[in-house]
Amino acid sequence: MNRRIKVLMFGWEFPPHISGGLGTACYGLTKGLMKHNTEVYFVVPKAYGDEDQHAVRIVNASEETVELSGESVHEFQEKLRFIEVDALLAPYMDPEEYLRAREELILRREKDSHLRFSARFDFSGKYGANLMEEVARYALVGESVARRVDVDVIHAHDWLTYQAGIAAKRVSGKPLVVHIHATEFDRSGENVNQLVYDIEREGMQAADLVIAVSNFTRNIVIERYGIDPSKVITVHNAVEPTDATLVQQDKHFPDKVVTFLGRITYQKGPEYFVEAAHKILQRDRNVRFVMAGSGDMMEKMVRRVARLGMADKFHFTGFLRGENIDRLFAITDVFVMPSVSEPFGIVPLEAMRSNVPVVISKQSGVSEVLQHALKVDFWDIEGLADSIYGLLHYHALSETFSRHGKTEVDNLKWENAAAKVVDVYTQALTQTL
Questions:
Q1: Enclosing H/E stretch for 382
Q2: Region for 355 from its dihedrals, namely left if φ exceeds 0, alpha if ψ lies in -120 to 50, beta otherwise
Q3: Residues 54 and 75 in one domain
């Protein structure tokens, strides 16, 4: 297919306003698509005006006027039923009060179903307490945008946007591609949020084709969500090129530096990093460890570091982005990603791009594409500590991984990943003809 493909793309974040790898991946992919005869309309819940629109046209959901009929309003209310039920279950409400409140809610819905709905929603664009409500409202915006923008294919990134993608497909008749950057099993282990799982599964089932960021993730999609293997296609992520020599940062201390960069949450395995650090410091006190990021396990990690007597050798930086990350990599001797379940993992590529050797868990998608990285099971603290120690103390080893690793990563281009995504678009369009 040689003609220009127009894409309506739904994402939850876009640089420079990001909180993780999802926004980075979306940015890299859209820049890569620009080189393959595509035109992308990228919808975000909240745009700030400083986004790079060189490769995309940003559509700000917070500025989109939604005008829908009673049927769509009713569907929106159904999507919010879990919020309304939670609101009804107030403390000390007896059964009679609950039934009366429920009847009033039903009557209000019946009345609203005869009305026409016109409004703008003010999205926070974050991951706060009203996230589920924003997801449902975002679906209404997705339907509204799809009515007025003429595109060939719809592309939705991760579960937050799947309902918007489904709504857009329904009103436009265009094929839907959903992109799996992480599943609920990656985020929560076996303690899955059933509502999120259901949304993920619904999106995958409704999609014409599903893109997984690794074979690791593809297997989860097939085995845990029951999706037809023939419609699940792996497209590995890539990394934005940069000139690492432009970033110079003096350490002002002689110690080696080992860095963890990511969300401090279950999925990323921060506790294994802390325990490995303790073992290394028992052998060499001239090492400092940096945990850059934020998350629900932050306080627990701080307490554990203090209990192990490592506070003078351990640094918590909080969330970092942009040039601050480059500065951190400039003083880092070894980067570590001990993720419990990592669909891909772009940060190791960013570290290698900056000539930093890396240790990654075997339970990561990025391990499928990297040869010059040390790989260990996330739970193997001894193996993790030995790998880090080896890169810190054997110069020939670290030099080999640093030099060849950078060359390897330089060949992982978003332009190449985007070419595979265009092939997915072409397949989806062919199937719907």
A1: helix 381-393
A2: left
A3: no
